[in-house]
């Protein structure tokens, strides 16, 4: 054992009569309370997420909202289109369950808001899904191949952003048609993927240099396989976080479009449209504008908090929270 | 023995973090004598930088907390000085050089501006022209060519070695009595390191400052240090003259360090690292912090229960060790790296 | 520095050209002026034929593009398809009003956000910091049009209950605003709410960003060096830290300009202001593509110019960029 210390005085550290674990083995470690339990990465992420009380509360609120939206017919006290000409434009009251008041045609506002909530969530989800798919693919291709492909794609992205977002959306809505949530969602998705593409591109660009990619290439893996089997899992964190922010933006954009008349149209209910129609009623029937807006704000807030919590959970080095 | 220019006594610093209290510095004692170079050696996390930065007030007080101790400079305790007084000393009488010159210099100001700023802060009313002249002199002293032109350049226009020279120039600008160099060569290429060592030497000669050299590079210690403090897990485990430390280490950690050096003058088949991992500073092992990795402890109970005190042993009292069994090491005539002392 | 400026100018011109192509081709893809003509009630075939010939509406696309560019450059965007009224005067007037709104809103947003962001960073986790963060979150979750409407409702009701007009809720000026200082005051009272509405979202974004940037810089090595040199804390914060934290904010402000215009579209609609936004919405609803294209090009020019200004400011603030 001491051959390798030739040239020096004989090694005095031969453990004589020492317990087998003296060299930092498990017994000693255990005794000193140094043992650590191993956990998976996702478990850590989950623990970190649930440390955020706001994010957890927001998750609960969002789940409740989703349930209300899905079961709107059961939850809403009235139908979406039930006229009641006896009670036109009345303020909120507890009698008859008109908690949000009624509108110009005597329809219960709470019910209308609930159905509008369903539309908002449905469009936002549609937008987020489509935009994430497009954005991830484009970003991955740009980041992975780099060079000319990347340059071209990024110039295209820059160009799309030269004209203000909402303006382009409005033009597209006018000429490509709107009214149905599906169409509105597709149009919004067509532009909003850009932000996600940028982020994915960034991650892929840096991942490209990592050894495991080189190893996969050396093993003969094809480009698509490398991109989606090897590199994509590392980008899931930023993608999920950006996706939640995308959902929040989509909610606000759809509301704005519907408000201006270029989004979802009747008979499909929409929160933005409700606000628009309510605003036309004058300034005394405040509930027609307030309640749908509060719902939008709460949705967007909840999604943003969840996104913040996710960002901390999935990428703790990036701490920017208060 | 002249009076020390700086005395650290029983310094204990904690950090309050989400994961618990980090005991970064525990009951640290050492002195710095005028004109000498005191090397502080240890791994990352041993507390070597924290002890020094606390003394200069550079550790933000939450989450950091000075639990105990004094840092006597002259007749004042730096730890209790009002902020304004401490600021006057910082950069003036006590100056610091940091590890990474690329990130330690402000990218939006010229090198000349940053050095002149240091001069003008401690010499109010000196005027731009004089400050600039002195800046040019300093840069020439540390070996930056074309100094007149280069004071108008930005840090990213300097090479790594040049940047570190500029940082050294900045630190000696106000003729400090104490110079602290925190890993001055770690971020540099090996070839540049040798040059910087020379620059440090001439800076010391020029200012006659006492120097604290913080590093994990034993080669640097061998080149520059007069005495050495060895730190582990926030404690001083050994303190002696540089040749004593290299030739007759009397703490198992120091012995391990010496044994782990790669050598040109011996035929080694294997490198001999210290087994195990550095301890957690949040929940350090009981007793001697080194005992889980100590080849000399042999599992003896006192190592696991009592924190060894830093005490002198043998004759002279100049060699201190924090090991319960330092005398055993002496008796075994353990040798370290066998560095030759100049005659 | 000069080469940097020239390079940016050159690049901006190219982008402008590319934008014009994109706008024209894009619009032609989704709509056609002839189709628009056919949709007009009571137009005889002959009328349609006349207008088509006069405006070269059935020429190949690149010829039409050429005429359009010529109109843009020499004839101030030409005239509307049907009425043959010039596009520019309305647009120009609208532009002036919108610029007042946007510039005021952006200045307000930057000033407040920088103050809030820096102070939050320096007093991290304080009550102020939490309040500012809450405000940011809520501000970013509020639809612009809703905030505008709520403020309108609030101030109209204040007027109705207390009989005092603090801010006006619609249009640019009262019927008889007077001249000089009276005019300015009247305009300010009318624009106050729109400016606030436009600024809110930006204050939220910029202050969060400023806080993050400031925190990162304040913990950087060079700030540590500045402290180690013995500089007074104020100088460390303002001179060393703040200047560096400002740099990324400049980029953010530039990138955000498009959003400002979008916000202006909504705000002007709600507050019934005679600005570019209203111009755009009315022309969009009318269906004639040429005024819409004019608007798009003007927006593109604004965005490009603004980006150029931001690039130059960035080069001025960050010496590392200048010397490429």
Blueprint of the fold:
The complex is a heterotrimer of chains A (322), B (343) and C (324).
Chain A: H1 26-31, H2 41-50, H3 53-70, H4 72-75, H5 109-145, H6 147-160, H7 165-176, H8 181-207, H9 211-218, H10 223-260, H11 271-279, H12 287-314
Chain B: E1 6-17, E2 20-32, E3 37-41, H1 48-55, E4 64-73, E5 76-77, H2 83-89, E6 94-97, H3 101-104, H4 111-122, H5 128-141, H6 147-150, H7 160-172, E7 178-182, H8 190-207, E8 210-215, H9 218-224, E9 227-232, E10 235-241, H10 242-247, H11 252-259, H12 301-305, E11 311-312, E12 320-321, H13 326-331
Parallel strand pairs in B: 3-8, 3-9, 6-7, 7-8
Antiparallel strand pairs in B: 1-2, 1-4, 4-5, 9-10, 10-12, 11-12
Helix pairs in contact in B: 4-5, 4-7, 5-7, 7-8
Chain C: H1 2-30, H2 33-39, H3 45-54, H4 61-75, H5 88-122, H6 127-141, H7 144-162, H8 180-218, H9 221-228, H10 233-255, H11 257-271, H12 276-286, H13 289-317, H14 319-322
Helix pairs in contact in C: 1-13, 5-6, 5-8, 5-11, 5-12, 6-8, 7-8, 7-11, 8-10, 8-11, 9-10, 10-13, 11-12, 12-13
Characterize the structure shown:
The complex is a heterotrimer of chains A (322), B (343) and C (324). Chain A has 322 residues and is mainly alpha-helical. Chain A is 66% helix and 0% strand. Mean pLDDT of chain A is 77; it is low at 1-35 and 318-322. Chain B is α/β, with parallel strands linked by helices. Chain B has helices at 48-55, 83-89, 101-104, 111-122, 128-141, 147-150, 160-172, 190-207, 218-224, 242-247, 252-259, 301-305, 326-331, and strands spanning 6-17, 20-32, 37-41, 64-73, 76-77, 94-97, 178-182, 210-215, 227-232, 235-241, 311-312, 320-321. The relative contact order of chain B is 0.13. The model of chain B has no long low-confidence stretch (mean pLDDT 87). Helix content of chain C is 80%, strand content 0%. Classes of the chains: A mainly alpha (322), B alpha/beta (343), C mainly alpha (324). Chains A and C meet through helix 7, helix 10, helix 11 and helix 12 of A and helix 1, helix 6, helix 7, helix 8 and helix 11 of C.
């Amino acid at each position: 054992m001491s051959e390798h210390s030739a040239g020096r005085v004989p090694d005095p550290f031969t453990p004589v009569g020492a317990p087998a674990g003296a060299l930092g083995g498990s017994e000693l470690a255990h005794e000193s309370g140094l043992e650590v339990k191993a956990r998976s990465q996702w478990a850590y992420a989950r623990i970190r997420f649930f440390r955020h009380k706001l994010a957890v509360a927001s998750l609960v609120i969002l789940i409740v909202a989703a349930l209300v939206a899905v079961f709107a017919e059961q939850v809403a006290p009235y139908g979406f289109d039930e006229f009641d000409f006896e009670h036109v434009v009345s303020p909120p009251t507890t009698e008859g369950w008109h908690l949000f008041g009624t509108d110009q045609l005597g329809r219960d506002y709470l019910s209308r808001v609930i159905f509008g909530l369903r539309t908002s969530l449905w469009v936002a989800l549609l937008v987020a899904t489509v935009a994430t798919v497009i954005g991830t693919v484009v970003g991955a291709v740009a980041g992975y191949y780099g060079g000319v492909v990347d340059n071209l794609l990024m110039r295209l992205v820059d160009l799309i952003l030269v004209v203000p977002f909402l303006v382009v959306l409005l033009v597209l809505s006018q000429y490509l048609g709107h009214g149905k949530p599906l169409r509105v969602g597709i149009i919004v998705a067509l532009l909003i993927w850009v932000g996600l593409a940028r982020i994915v591109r960034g991650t892929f660009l840096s991942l490209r240099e990592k050894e495991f990619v080189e190893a996969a290439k050396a093993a003969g893996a094809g480009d698509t396989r490398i991109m989606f089997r090897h590199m994509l899992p590392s980008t899931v964190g930023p993608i999920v976080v950006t996706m939640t922010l995308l959902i929040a933006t989509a909610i606000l954009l759809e509301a704005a479009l519907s408000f201006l008349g270029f989004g979802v149209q009747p008979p499909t209910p929409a929160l933005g449209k409700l606000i628009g129609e309510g605003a036309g009623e004058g300034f005394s029937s405040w509930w027609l504008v307030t309640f749908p807006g509060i719902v939008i704000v709460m949705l967007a807030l909840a999604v943003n908090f969840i996104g913040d919590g996710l960002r901390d959970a999935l990428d703790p080095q990036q701490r920017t929270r208060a | 023995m002249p009076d020390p220019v700086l005395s650290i006594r029983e310094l204990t610093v904690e950090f309050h973090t989400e994961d618990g209290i980090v005991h970064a510095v525990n009951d640290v004692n050492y002195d710095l004598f005028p004109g000498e170079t005191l090397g502080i050696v240890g791994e990352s996390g041993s507390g070597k930088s924290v002890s020094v930065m606390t003394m200069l007030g550079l550790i933000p007080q939450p989450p950091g907390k000075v639990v105990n101790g004094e840092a006597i400079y002259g007749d004042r305790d730096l730890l209790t000085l009002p902020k304004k007084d401490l600021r006057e000393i910082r950069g003036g009488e006590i100056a610091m050089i940091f590890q990474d010159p690329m990130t330690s210099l402000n990218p939006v100001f010229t090198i000349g501006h940053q050095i002149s700023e240091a001069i003008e802060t401690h010499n109010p009313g000196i005027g731009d022209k004089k400050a600039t002249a002195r800046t040019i002199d300093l840069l020439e002293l540390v070996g930056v060519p074309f100094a007149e032109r280069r004071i108008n350049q930005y840090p990213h226009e300097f090479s790594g070695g040049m940047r570190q020279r500029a940082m050294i120039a900045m630190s000696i600008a106000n003729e400090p009595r104490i110079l602290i160099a925190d890993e001055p060569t770690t971020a540099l290429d090996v070839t540049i390191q040798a040059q910087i060592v020379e620059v440090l030497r001439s800076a010391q000669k020029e200012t006659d400052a006492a120097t604290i050299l913080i590093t994990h590079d034993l080669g640097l210690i061998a080149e520059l240090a007069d005495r050495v403090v060895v730190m582990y897990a926030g404690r001083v485990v050994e303190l002696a003259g540089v040749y004593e430390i290299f030739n007759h280490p009397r703490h198992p950690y120091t012995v391990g360090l010496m044994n782990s050096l790669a050598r040109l003058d011996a035929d080694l088949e294997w490198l001999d690292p210290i087994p195990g991992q550095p301890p957690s500073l949040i929940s350090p092992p009981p007793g001697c912090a080194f005992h889980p990795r100590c080849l000399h402890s042999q599992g003896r109970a006192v190592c696991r229960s009592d924190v060894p005190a830093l005490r002198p042993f043998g004759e002279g009292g100049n060699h201190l060790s924090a090991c319960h069994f330092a005398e055993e090491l002496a008796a075994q005539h353990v040798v370290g790296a066998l560095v030759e002392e100049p005659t | 520095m000069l080469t940097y400026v020239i390079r940016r100018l050159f690049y901006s011109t190219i982008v402008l050209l590319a934008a014009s192509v994109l706008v024209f081709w894009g619009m032609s893809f989704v709509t056609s002026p002839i189709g628009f003509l056919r949709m007009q009630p009571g137009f005889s075939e002959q009328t349609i034929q006349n207008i088509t010939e006069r405006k070269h509406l059935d020429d190949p696309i690149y010829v039409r593009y050429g005429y359009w560019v010529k109109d843009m450059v020499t004839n101030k965007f030409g005239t509307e398809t049907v009425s043959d009224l010039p596009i520019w005067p309305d647009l120009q007037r609208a532009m002036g009003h919108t610029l007042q709104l946007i510039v005021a809103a952006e200045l307000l947003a930057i000033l407040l956000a920088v103050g809030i962001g820096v102070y939050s960073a320096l007093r991290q986790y304080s009550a102020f910091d939490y309040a500012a963060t809450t405000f940011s979150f809520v501000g970013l979750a509020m639809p612009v049009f809703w905030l505008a409407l709520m403020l309108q409702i609030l101030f109209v009701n204040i007027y109705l209950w207390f009989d005092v007009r603090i801010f006006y809720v619609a249009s640019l000026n009262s019927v008889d605003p007077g001249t000089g200082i009276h005019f300015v005051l009247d305009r300010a009272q009318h624009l106050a709410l729109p400016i606030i509405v436009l600024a809110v979202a930006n204050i939220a974004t910029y202050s969060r960003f400023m806080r993050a940037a400031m925190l990162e810089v304040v913990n950087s090595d060079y700030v540590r060096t500045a402290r180690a040199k013995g500089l007074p804390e104020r100088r460390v914060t303002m001179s060393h830290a703040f200047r560096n934290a400002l740099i990324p904010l400049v980029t953010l402000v530039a990138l955000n300009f498009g959003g400002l215009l979008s916000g202006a579209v909504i705000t002007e609609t709600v507050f019934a202001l005679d600005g570019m936004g209203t111009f755009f919405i009315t022309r969009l609803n009318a269906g004639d593509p040429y005024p819409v294209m004019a608007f798009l090009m003007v927006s593109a020019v604004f965005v490009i110019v603004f980006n150029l200004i931001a690039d130059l400011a960035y080069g001025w603030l960050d010496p590392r960029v200048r010397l490429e």
